[in-house]
Design goal:
transmembrane, 215 residues, mainly alpha
Length: 215
């Protein structure tokens, strides 16, 4: 049985990432960009978008701490700034009224939007990267090497699960959009926005504690 210590990185990471990525909010973007494409090409767009998003998040998890050291950024500063970024995104989701639908646009099969803008910044935007690096910075402060390895692995699994859920949503975009409708999607987006604000506050509090401990 997995230790609760590792499970907190698996489930905590998954919840944080699924909230910040908010797969349902990517449905209008995906539909508008792939409209006019054949079914096979749309499936490939969904596949590669999630592959790219997973790669971006995994690289951020693995190399995020190296970038912090290179630029001389402390863990506390990262968590506080990341918390503000995540909180602002959550605020926009909760109180914003931007229309992500737009007019239908005819696309051709040779067009490729899987990396930009679907994977980045659509799925793996600044907020997502900030969350991943924030988790990586917490793991890097663990005193035990085995605990660090296990926590990194579980967070990696959480990233893969998040992208798997996003993949299912994108592959079912037309069906989900028809079932939820604009109002249902808006309600879920606002709920995700509130949860993001909570995660942002948690990041800021963690960063402040790190600053106090290091002073």
């Amino acid at each position: 049985m997995l230790d609760s210590f590792y499970l907190q990185y698996l489930f905590g990471g998954f919840v944080s990432l699924i909230v910040i990525t908010n797969p349902l909010s990517k449905i209008p973007l995906f539909i508008s960009l792939t409209q006019g494409m054949s079914l096979d090409v749309r499936k490939k767009q969904a596949n590669w978008s999630c592959y790219y998003a997973a790669a971006i998040m995994l690289v951020s998890l693995a190399a995020g701490n190296l970038l912090l050291v290179f630029f001389g950024i402390s863990y506390g500063a990262l968590r506080i700034s990341g918390g503000f970024v995540v909180g602002i995104i959550g605020y926009q989701m909760l109180f914003g009224s931007r229309d992500q639908g737009g007019a239908p646009v005819v696309r051709r099969d040779k067009d490729d939007y899987s990396f930009f803008p679907i994977a980045m910044p659509g799925i793996s935007g600044p907020g997502t990267i900030a969350v991943v690096i924030g988790i990586a910075s917490e793991i890097a402060e663990l005193p035990n090497v085995m605990d660090m390895a296990g926590a990194f692995f579980m967070t990696g699994v959480a990233i893969v699960l998040t992208c798997a859920v996003t993949w299912i949503v994108l592959r079912s975009a037309d069906y989900i959009s028809g079932r939820l409708g604009p109002s249902g999607t808006a309600v879920l987006t606002k709920l995700m926005g509130f949860l993001l604000i909570c995660i942002g506050v948690q990041f800021i509090g963690s960063g402040i504690r790190t600053f106090i401990a290091g002073s």
